[in-house]
Amino acid sequence: MIAGRLLAPAPGWTSQADVVVVGSGVAGVTAALAAHRALPGSRVLLVTKSVLDDGSTRWAQGGIAAALGPGDSPEQHLRDTLTAGAGLCDVAAVRALVTDGPDAVRRLIALGARFDSEPGGPLALTREGGHLRRRIAHAGGDATGAEVSRALLLALAEAGAGPHGAGLDVIEHAMSLDLLLTPDGRAAGITLHVIGEGRQDGVGAVLARAVVLATGGIGQVYSATTNPPVSTGDGLALALRGGAEAADLEFVQFHPTVLWLGAGARGRQPLISEAVRGEGAVLIDGAGRRFMTGRHPLADLAPRDVVAKAIMNVMLQTGADHVYLDGRQLGAQTWDHRFPTIRASCLEHGIDPVLEPIPVVPAAHYASGGIRTDLSGRSSVPGLYACGEVACTGVHGANRLASNSLLEGLVFAERIAADLAAGLPPQAEPAVDDRVAGLLDPAAVEQIQQLMTERAGVLRSGPGLTAAADGLREIGERQSDQPGVGAWEATNLHLIASAVVAAAAARTETRGSHWRDDYPESSDSWLGHLVVRLDSETGSGAAGTGSQSRPVHNAPAGTAARSAASSDRPTHNLAESQAQSPRTAGTVGRSAVDVDGLILTFVPDQPMGDAAGGQA
Ligand SMILES: Cc1cc2nc3c(=O)[nH]c(=O)nc-3n(C[C@H](O)[C@H](O)[C@H](O)COP(=O)(O)OP(=O)(O)OC[C@H]3O[C@@H](n4cnc5c(N)ncnc54)[C@H](O)[C@@H]3O)c2cc1C
Is a pLDDT exceeding 50 seen at residue 390? Predict the structure, then answer.
């Protein structure tokens, strides 16, 4: 069963803010700081599930991409991003990213972030896979995220943020649960569980005129991930239950080279950046044979999805549970200068990459999809915004270009603040919440992760996804009546896993980071987006779904269903999609697999024309 809301005690306290921002990574802190600046005299409240720097941001290694170097331009950055996105990027969103990007990075530097520089002062810019120019700014060699996080959190402290800040308040150990909604489906705040002391302890309600979700990724849906434990997809699940649309959920990026920590290792695993391969490290199998040569013209520097798939195939063929990344030829000096964090994390696990090959395996890394937003970060629920990894702004399409995500967090958080400054709605009264409550047994998490890793990971197939959907339906029956962080996270993970599986089963083609063994080619009839929402019968009630009252930017007009139906481009009846029967109308359907409670709509893209410079 998919719950319409999380089972939780009734709010025992109520608090009020003009804007509540959920999450304290690059997106959340930037949104909170920018909203605080843009709305003088207003109260901005930042809440975060654990401590302030516990998200993915501080783990980011490679850097932040922006057209800052000589000879580079936003237009060239746009073209590289569109190429990586495999035909599914929203060109207007990418244009916003690459045009606003350089100034957003300069503002970050002005705020105090210290990036690596060349002798004499200019920023040291490097290249990563898919970038045709040197445009990746980095800090501390391979510790960019830690520096970005440090600078942003310092700025937050300097702005007076704290439990009783001067108009900018922060609450740590505060897990958002569900959206508070007005009778006509507008966001009116959130429910929140705080592990604290005194007045704001336990479950409470934060009434707000606008809610900004910046809760990061969904990596914990899989057994092994580069994401930290907080990345359980809470914001995405909350938004879906609140009636918002999500899109592109099938496009989960798996990083090919994550340190292998032994069979059965679960949770966050250390990343070995692809920059290590950029410096000359190569992938080898257990017998010491290079296996990327001949598979792709760029060999070991092929795009992430190609390398991840090759590794999985080698593992299947040889029966091994990992391969190796051989970086011995880099030498101690390069390792220590360029990759001090990575070498230290290998040494922590008993491997010295200067002397021996590193055992590696692919792991879940980045969600290109998320809550569907327009160019101002607005979701399909009025008053609900999203930015950072939880959002689907359209910039990543079917595959994120390396180092575009920190930039997306900065740029779209600032765009949200600008939209809020243009006019906040009055505080509305939430309706009585009569959505059906549910809660999963926390012990189900391991089962969800295992199922997703085996059936909906790097390599996917129709039968595997059907088995995943069946398994998830069974897991959904493992209900609990004991509210708590573990059970809330399990319930969120189950909803996200179900939505990923539904979308992955429906998309009967291979594109970007979505690989279908049974449909190995891309098909032009799939040039568009799978939009997922909760069936209104699941999240029913006055405060439930059906609130898509405002067009989202890449739908031609009106709701997703209307826009798809009114388009003359081929669309899919998803119930028939496994039989590859494109239709021209009737686009709202259930997934090709039976995932109760979710509705999928295929929204075809507009032809990109000149806007894309011919690069789809
Ligand atoms: C190992 C690694 C390396 C990476 N390298 C790069 C790179 O080099 N360049 C690049 O551009 N990108 C990189 N990425 C991706 C990038 O780091 C992330 O996409 C980005 O940092 C996400 O920022 P965010 O603010 O959206 O989310 P996060 O930084 O993940 O922050 C999410 C926040 O939301 C909070 N939260 C979650 N759920 C709740 C809840 N229910 N209630 C309250 N708070 C909640 C979390 O506690 C956290 O504070 C990397 C990612 C990883 C994991």
Answer: yes
- What's the gap in Å between 32 CA and the centre of ligand 1? 15
What separation, in Å, do the N-terminal and C-terminal C-alpha atoms of the chain show? 39
Mean pLDDT across the stretch 527-554?
56
Q: How far is the CA of 55 from the centre of ligand 1 (A)?
A: 5
Burial class (CB in 10 A: 0-12, 13-18, 19+), 336: middle
pLDDT at 198: 61
What is the atom index within ligand 1 of the atom nearest the CA of 492? Answer: 41
Domains of the chain from N-terminus onward: 252-365 (3.90.700.10), 483-612 (no CATH)
The whole-number pLDDT of residue 279 equals: 85
Residue with tokens 């990543």: 396
**What is the reported pLDDT for 95?**
98
Which residues are catalytically annotated?
A: 304
CB of 377 shorter than 6 A to ligand 1: no
491 close to ligand 1 (CB < 6 Angstrom):
no
Instruction: Tell me if 582 sits within 8 A of 602, measured CB to CB.
Output: no
Please indicate whether residue 406, judged by its CB atom, sits closer than 6 Å to ligand 1: yes
**What is the Cα 265 distance to its own chain's centre?**
22
Ramachandran angles phi, psi of 91, nearest 5°: -60, -40
Q: Is 150 in the pocket of ligand 1 (CB under 6 A)?
A: no
The CA-atom distances, in angstroms, between 501 and each of 366, 496, 510, 564, 616 are 16, 9, 15, 22, 26
Pocket lining: 220 vs ligand 1, CB cutoff 6 Å: no
What distance in angstroms lies between residue 412's CA and the mean position of ligand 1's atoms? 14
Full-model pTM? 0.91
Q: Phi and psi of 271, rounded to 5°?
A: -90, 140
Give the span between the Cα atoms of 432 and 507, in whole angstroms. 37
Distance 56 CA to ligand 1 centre (A): 3
Model pLDDT for residues 467-514, shown as the tens digit of each residue:
999 999 999 999 999 999 999 999 999 999 999 999 999 999 999 999
172: Cα separation from own chain's centroid: 21
Instruction: Give me the mean pLDDT over the 558-565 stretch.
Output: 30
